Every structure is written in structure tokens, then in C-alpha cells.
Amino acid sequence: MQIPGLGQVTEDVDLGWYQSGPVPVPVLGGALCRIIIDGYDDDPAPEDFHAAIRTFLALDRSALAAATPSIFAYYRDVMNDIVAAGDHDWYVEIQSPDDVLDHILFGDAPIIRRDLCGDRHVYVSLECECDWEHEHGLQIVFRDGRTVTKVGPCDGHLTNSAAYADDTLDAVVYHMSR
Question: Rg (Cα) of the chain, in Å, rounded?
Fold first, then answer.
């Protein structure tokens, strides 16, 4: 099957999604990623997926730079928990939001899917490894492939309002979970 912006994709019948071949992703420094498209066949507006793909693949690093204050807030909350627990072996020193991206290993399989329970937008979700949170990692979510609208531990949710069942968190990029 062909999906605009990705070309030929392969269906994973067991998982019910499509996967592209390696595609350079500028926002991730040109890293080659296999884009996963979930829910495409049954979607009433596949052109929304096409637009999200096109937009995401046109993003430059500034989209991530805009999210660094939120990513840094996540880092600080995790480090505060580590210090409070007295487990200094896991402490990672990051000086400022400007340095936080240097401590992330970006995932190579962004997942594109529609939020069926919430605002119905199409999101690109990227699971990453990070130096400060080995167990839960870092999830970065782009609404419509355009703007980072959620960061935090990998929980599979596309928005903080969905993750915490709280509509007041709709515009919140990072929310401390306590």
C-alpha cells in the first residue's frame, strides 16, 4: 500500500498497522526512522494522517527546542524524586533546558494515530530513552505532526488530559504525576 509522504508501507497484520521503510526525520537530526501508522484503514479522514506525516517530516529541530523547558521540568521532577529517595547513584546533572536534548536517545519508530477518545486530532508519538529515567523513558507527542503538546514518561497517552482524565490539562505539555 502507498501512503502519501511515506510511499510504500508494509502491513503488520498481527499489530494492525502499517510501517514505512527508513525515512529521514529532520526534527530528529535526519535520523532514519520507520514510521508506524495505526488506525489508518478504518479512519474516516485519512487525509488528516497525510497532513500530519507531511508536517512532521518538514519540522526542523526548533520544534524540539521549543519543548525543552517542559522536558527539563520532567527531568527536574525525576531528579527531585531520586534525591528525596536518597538514591544518588542515579543522579544525572543537566544544567539547563538548553542541555537537555543532549541526554536523549530519540526513538526510531514514531507512531502516527488519531486520538479517538479525545479531540480527534492525529498525533505523532515518539518513545525515547533518556539519561535521567531508565525505566519509563521519555514520550514526546506532536499534535497534527506540528507542535509538541505532551512530554513525560512513556505512558501511551496522546494528551495529558487523557493520561490524567482531566480536561483542564488539555493545553499542558508536561504535568507532574503525583
Answer: 17
